[in-house]
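Ticket #150: bound-state structure for 4-nitrophenyl phosphate.
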Amino acid sequence: MKTKVLMVCLGNICRSPLAEGILKSKVDANAVLVDSSGTAGYHIGNPPDKRSIAVAQKHLLDISAQKCRQFSKNDFKEFDLIYAMDKNNFINILSLANTEKDKKKVRLLLDEVNLGINEVPDPYYGGVDGFEEVYQMINSACEAIAKKLN
Ligand code: 4NP
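RESOLUTION: The complex was predicted; output attached.
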């Protein structure tokens, strides 16, 4: 059985699409399924933000085919591990959990690494530099996750 990992942010257009693309690039697709979603529904059906697509491309990853979707309660049934990019996402995901088993699936992405920060900042209203910074944080965490899963 595949391990199923879900990356979650607010909009599912900036951070979690990067997390999905980065983790996918580091794991065996036969053993690990990676997806992403957003706690909000502002951008459902849209591709990732152009700045996320660009920073991924700079690191030789193509995330342009991803489509935004909203996190749903059903994701607790589908996924084994649910990684939140920040504490607000974490709280919002937990508020939809029905069981202790569901709650245990939810983690903060940056708790996988020691970067001295435990939230991936929202880069949406900032500049391009923010996207590279976010890429690096997510990349470090995904490296640690991939080591455990591979
Ligand atoms: P994300 O960034 O949660 O990393 O996808 C955001 C994208 C869109 C909005 C906020 C954050 N928004 O308010 O539309």
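RESOLUTION NOTES: The first strand starts at residue 3 and ends at 9.
TICKET STATUS: resolved
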